[in-house]
Amino acid sequence: GAVVSQHPSWVICKSGTSVKIECRSLDFQATTMFWYRQFPKQSLMLMATSNEGSKATYEQGVEKDKFLINHASLTLSTLTVTSAHPEDSSFYICSAAKDRDYEQYFGPGTRLTVT
Amino acid sequence: KQEVTQIPAALSVPEGENLVLNCSFTDSAIYNLQWFRQDPGKGLTSLLLIQSSQREQTSGRLNASLDKSSGRSTLYIAASQPGDSATYLCAANTGGFKTIFGAGTRLFVKA
Is residue A92 within 8 angstroms of chain B, CB to CB? Predict the structure, then answer.
């Protein structure tokens, strides 16, 4: 199998605080991990791609200083939303890929609400 | 720039009907195309993955076809059930992990 988990599944934080979301590949080593965000009734938009041990590659329009991504190991990537604001409220989904087979395995998502 | 479009945006059908969901993409140079299911507030469940060299894939009551030359893929659901109600997303992989998602088709199957 290829199971990806995310933690937490939902989080509520106050405006101005930071929140960290974890993405783990449970039964395989992920050379590449991806972070997406999804607004209600909209599709997934890729935010960034991360490779273990190197800096993440951010999509155009995504603030790298606001959305900090760390891919510390072959099974763990974290997304930290810094100084969160209500407009950052969204559904964040990570995915992981094995080697180079180009198939992504998706996590269950994290619902972030900033009040 | 690859763009993925899904039609219809929403669909309501009575239980038992066979139905077709459509996905079109603007750049035929894709590596693969994948269909996902997403339940409200949940993550993605992969349904079918079609490699660029393939024409179709089948899993149970689901059949997905791919026509690269016309930039189209269809997901066929046979004998629909209320449990099939969800949003169905297609995603085109243009290589190098560049995956572009469509906006999805929200399906409601009435009992």
Answer: no
How far apart CA A9 and CA A78 sit, in angstroms, is: 14
Q: Which of residues 40-59 of A touch B (CB under 8 A)?
A: 41-46, 49
Asked if omega into B8 is within 30° of 0 (cis), the reply is yes
Contacts of A42 in chain B (CB under 8 A): 103
Q: pLDDT tens-digit profile of B13-41?
A: 999 999 999 999 998 889 899 999 999 88
Q: Which of A41-45, A54-58, A75-79 has the highest mean pLDDT?
A: A75-79
Residue A63 neighbours by CB under 8 Å, 6+ apart? none
Contact B97 A107 (CB under 8 A): no
Verify whether the Cβ–Cβ distance A109 to B34 is below 8 Å. no
C-alpha distance from residue A35 to each of A21, A55, A96, B12 (Å): 10, 14, 9, 31
What is the distance in angstroms between the Cα of B90 and the nearest Cα belonging to chain A?
A: 10
* Cα(B61)–Cα(A84) distance, integer angstroms: 43
- Locate the chain A residue with the closest alpha carbon to B33: A103
Cα–Cα separations (whole angstroms), residue A78 to A28, A95, B110, B111: 17, 12, 40, 42
d(CA A40, CA B103): 11
Q: What is the nearest CA distance from B97 to chain A, expressed in angstroms?
A: 6
